[in-house]
Amino acid sequence: xxxxxxxxxxxxxxxxxxxxxxxxxxxxxxxxxxxxxxxxxxxxxxxxxxxxxxxxxxxxxxxxxxxxxxxxxxxxxxxxxxxxxxxxxxxxxxxxxxxxxxxxxxxxxxxxxxxxxxxxxxxxxxxxxxxxxxxxxxxxxxxxxxxxxxxxxxxxxxxxxxxxxxxxxxxxxxxxxx
Length: 178
Hints:
single chain, mainly alpha, Protein Binding, DinI Protein, Chain A, two-stranded parallel ribbon, 5 helices, 71% helix, rod-shaped
């Protein structure tokens, strides 16, 4: 989640709480937190999806490694002093063509992997949201806020440990996504 979206989300939650809290003054309303990334990393379906993404990435990496090795061998052949000038020029032409193809393939693979990551994030965010909603409704929470992570954006600066429903959301996520 980018910083603008996080700020908008926090502002919306704060505005919502300000608007709703006067109406809830006689009642207690419960808000909890969770870590969406942990839900994906610890749930069975999330682990499977991450492994599939990793396997997809590894197959692409093997192709890149093979291309890289081929380029190294061609470069060594060019540097070999046994080649005639004409043969050396042919090898240099081959090297240039293969290098351009290698760079295109590398860029294409990176785009493919990034696209798969984006698709996974969108799909699993919806699934995590459904699991969080089920946990919230079951336990009477009016909101569950994603805590965020230290390395990106930490949305919740403090919460009581008892308010962290991540483990419950993981269990619900697994139940919903067998």
